[in-house]
Write a structure and sequence with these properties.
This protein has helices at residues 15-25, 78-86, and strands at residues 8-11, 29-34, 37-42, 45-50, 69-73, 91-102, 105-115, 121-132. With 133 residues, it is of the alpha/beta class. The N and C termini lie far apart (40 Å).
Length: 133
Amino acid sequence: MKFNSLITEFTVSNLEKSLEFYTKVLGFKLEYSREHFSFLSFQGSQIMISESDNWSTGKLEHPFGRGINFQIQVKKIDPLLRKLKKNKIKLFAEPEEKWYRVGKVKIGNKQFLVQDPDGYLLRFFEDLGSRKL
């Protein structure tokens, strides 16, 4: 397996609950696991989840990861939305199309946001292409 040059590691309060969310609800693949730790992948993205708090910079309070969201590109967001609805997971932000200026073009995303069991904010998006300004 090739590792991405940047891989996020989430400290989680309950590894089994987080694994259930990421693998059963969202469809992440469990690449490997060891005590209190799992490495997951999904359509080219990679994350680590760990119950151990090795490098804490302060007290963890729910929701974890305040002030940050993790953008995850997927082929299509609709299958994820169906899985979340089936599992009665509330969205943080409903699906929308957003166009972001990048130089002399606008890049389009169809996106939504959801929180994991610990409150980490995940922004899933599919690419809508680009337009000239």
